[in-house]
Design a protein that fits this description.
This protein has eight helices and 14 strands. The chain has a seven-stranded mixed sheet with strand order 1-9-8-7-4-2-3.
């Protein structure tokens, strides 16, 4: 085997982690506003910044006017947990589990909430049978399986006239893929994913149907304060103004505002989706000419365009040990950081192609992957 030459061109921004993801191009710490550091979280000036972040989030993500947007602790995990603990129990539940987080949500619903959920699962690389989704059940699912590289192609499997709620973990999809708001009742995401914000704050979008559930349904379980969405008479509508439920990092908030401002400046949601697709297409072009690696997702219609998961085709090298050496070699060269697959997924690579990554860097990465393969197997 002829060894691949060492490439001359390196990715200018070698950050391909799937969370936290790459900062927006041009990001600098010194550009973040620091005037309010050390102020009380409920000082009028601080609350005004939360209100600004709230309005920008709605604008960039194109959230419908009749949907509520809440900021919650603990990133996307906190937002999903708040939805599960506050909303489930009124009717039967189904959970789609085709990656690590879908399996975690299924475990929470069954083992911690004590509900007899139907779990519709699939192995890594496949989608579950979406035809089994019932409109009279509440549904919990991830739009994009961050650890499996599999996504739902659209929301057509969710009935428009459903009586149950569709609760969607969209943390690796929001801002990068179109979301069908008419078929989703709860949408969660975090600051640390598609726009490269820092971790710690999650977001929860509630449709009028979800708000109505909160207004009428009182779960038969204690709910911790940091997950509580209800007040004494139903949905706590103060949360829908962007008001913090506890003490959040003001630095994280300012970082999120900067990311949203960048997204707005480049053209909003349409531009973010276009950048993501361009990155995915560049990586797909390299995969199509590379005989030793392929997508973990089998069906092209279901391949994630953000958290792209890849598997080595030779089973002798598809091991944690080999993947660790492969990724360490690239990190030593300063060309790709944090591209090892999730610890719960099959051994392989996971390359973030979201909107904050530059297509030129994805194109520059391919030859380095070839070089690393050649160095370790040649």
């Amino acid at each position: 085997m002829t060894r691949a030459p060492r490439p001359q061109l390196k990715p200018a921004r070698p950050w391909f982690s799937s969370g936290p993801t790459a900062k927006p191009p041009g990001w600098r710490m010194q550009d973040l506003s620091s005037d309010l550091m050390g102020r009380n979280i409920r000082a009028p000036e601080v609350l005004a910044r939360f209100d600004h972040a709230h309005a920008l989030t709605r604008q960039v993500l194109e959230i419908p006017a009749d949907h509520a947007l809440c900021f919650l602790p603990a990133s996307d995990t906190g937002a999903v947990e708040a939805a599960l603990w506050n909303l489930l129990g009124e009717r039967p539940v189904q959970v789609l589990a085709y990656d690590n987080f879908g399996q975690l949500w299924a475990s929470d619903v069954r083992d911690h909430l004590g509900l007899e959920a139907e779990v519709i699962s699939a192995p890594y690389g496949d989608l579950p049978d979406l035809a089994r989704v019932r409109p009279d059940h509440d549904l919990v699912f991830a739009w994009n399986g961050t650890t499996s590289g599999v996504r739902v192609p659209d929301a057509a499997f969710i009935a428009p006239d459903r009586s149950g709620l569709a609760i969607c973990d969209a943390t690796s999809a929001a801002f990068c893929m179109p979301l069908d708001w008419g078929r989703l009742d709860v949408v969660t995401f975090s600051f640390q994913k598609a726009l490269g914000g820092d971790a710690g704050i999650g977001a929860l979008v509630l449709s009028p149907r979800a708000i109505a559930r909160l207004d009428r349904y009182v779960p038969d379980r204690p709910i911790p304060k940091i997950l509580r969405l209800r007040g004494s008479d139903g949905f706590d509508r103060k949360l829908a103004t962007g008001a913090p439920i506890n003490t959040y990092s003001i630095l994280t908030l300012e970082d999120w505002i900067a990311a949203l401002a960048w997204a707005h400046e480049i053209g909003g949601l349409e531009a973010l989706i276009r950048r993501t697709r361009s990155n995915f297409e560049a990586l797909s072009a390299w995969i199509g000419t590379t005989p030793w690696i392929d997508f973990l997702a089998h069906d092209p219609a279901c391949r994630s365009e953000t958290s792209v998961c890849l598997g080595f085709l030779d089973p002798k090298v598809a091991t944690r040990e080999f993947v660790g050496r492969f990724c360490a070699l690239l990190a030593e060269q300063g060309v790709a950081f944090d591209i090892e697959s999730h610890r719960a997924a099959p051994p392989g690579l996971r390359i973030w192609c979201g909107a904050t990554v530059e297509t030129a860097d994805i194109a520059a990465l391919g030859p380095w992957l070839d070089w690393a393969w050649s160095e370790l197997t040649g």
